Amino acid sequence: MSQSAIVSKEKPQRLKLITSYGHVYRQIKSTEARDARPGEIPVIDISGIFRDSDAKNQVAREISSAAKDTGFFYIKNHGISEDVIQAAVSSGKIFFGQPEDLKKQVHTSKSKFFNGWNDFSSIHYNEAELPDNREYFAFKYDPRYDPSVADLDSVPFDFRRCFKGEEWYWEQTAHIRGFKNSLLRYWQANLTLARHLTRVFSLALDLPEDYFDEKIRYPDAAATLNHCTTLPRPGETPNQAEPRSDDIEPPSASELIENTGPDAVSVGTHTDLQLFIILWQDNQSGLQVLTRQGEWIKADPVDGALGVNIADYLMRITNDRWMSTVHRVLHNRAGDRYSIPFFFGFNLNETCGVLPSCVDEENPAKYDPISCEDWLRRRFEKTIDREDDKLKAGVEDPGHVGTDQEGGPRPQRDLARLPRA
Question: pTM of this prediction?
Answer without folding.
Answer: 0.83
